[in-house]
Design a protein that fits this description.
This protein is an alpha/beta fold. It is built from 7 helices and 15 strands. Strand 7, helix 5 and strand 8 form a beta-alpha-beta unit. It is globular, with a radius of gyration of 21 Å.
Length: 308
């Protein structure tokens, strides 16, 4: 990947409100509340969080597809206006094909995109569809959800974007299709200064693929940083509940208790206060995310942490 460490996306203090589906005439609801987001150029940034955390809304705002009420968004060096409704130049995103007429086939989509998107590579689009096993004459409404995702990804990649934004790309994919998708994304990232920003619940396979991690809860970022740095910042501890001194409880992040045992994250610097019988090891990405989200759920005002 590129050694250029400038930022492909820089978001500061982002606030986004969406209309209430239950009360359409009420004030729009705050979904993103002062979120900061940095996406380094040439890296894979993975955004994770529980349902309703604001991930999809944030990605739509970054892609220029959703207005925002406060804060700033800069994408590929261009500041986006609050009411922008189209992607910036050099940006492709998923979803997108779902808005196509249901009786269209991939050939209709290719023809439309070639006419409206400069540089759209029809040959590469069709090659990707063949690799994914999607019939070129199949109507969109007859595709499975997994195939629709693959079709949308092929259309996005054929734009040859500098920044690719994907929302839950692994949803509805079987294990083989998920592995093939990661391989395609690795090829995309082999290009010069290519950047990938994706939101996902599926962290399987992300351990060796993600460079940068952003954990979001209730519309704010509770942690962000380089994946390797985060793994060095925390330890996963396991110990008997009865062995936890009262003064050490505050150092446990997102603790969970099963029977008499407790498992939690702990900052490396705080581990010295734990009993010598505690089992300590480096956590994987999934464990970091799980315990941080548990802590954020229990305390909506959890302090933000940024890996150093």
């Amino acid at each position: 990947m590129s050694e250029n460490r400038s930022d492909a996306v820089l978001v500061r203090g982002l606030e986004v409100r969406v209309p209430s589906t239950a009360k359409p005439y009420a004030e729009p609801l705050p979904v993103v509340r002062g979120l900061d987001l940095t996406v380094p150029t040439g890296q894979v940034t993975v955004m994770v969080g529980a349902n309703g955390a604001g991930k999809t809304t944030t990605l739509r705002a970054v892609a220029g597809a959703h207005p925002f009420s406060a804060g700033s968004i800069e994408v590929l060096g261009t500041a986006l206006g609050p009411a922008r409704v189209r992607p910036p130049q050099g940006v492709a995103s998923l979803p997108g094909v779902s808005a196509s007429p249901r009786r269209w086939t991939s050939r209709h989509i290719a023809r439309m995109r070639k006419d409206t998107i400069p540089g759209f590579d029809v040959a590469w689009f069709e090659e990707l569809l063949t690799a994914f096993g999607i019939p070129h004459e199949q109507e969109v409404n007859r595709l499975s959800q997994g195939q629709a995702t693959q079709l949308g990804l092929a259309a996005a990649l054929a734009q040859d974007p500098q920044l690719l934004i994907l929302d839950e790309p692994f949803a509805h994919l079987d294990p083989l299709a998920r592995t093939e998708l990661v391989d395609v994304l690795r090829c995309f990232m082999a290009g010069e200064d290519r950047t990938l920003l994706l939101a996902t619940h599926d962290l399987e396979g992300m351990e060796r693929f993600a460079d940068h991690l952003v954990v979001v809860s209730r519309g704010i970022d509770v942690l962000s940083g380089d994946v390797e740095s985060l793994r060095e910042e925390f330890l996963l501890c396991e110990l008997e509940r009865s062995e936890i001194a009262r003064e050490a409880e505050h150092s446990l992040v997102g603790p969970t208790t099963t029977g008499t045992g407790t498992r939690a994250l702990v900052a490396v610097d705080d581990a010295v206060g734990l009993p010598t019988t505690a089992s300590l090891r480096r956590p994987d990405v999934s464990e970091i995310v799980t315990h941080l989200l548990r802590a954020a759920r229990e305390d909506a005002a959890a302090p933000r942490r940024t890996a150093r």
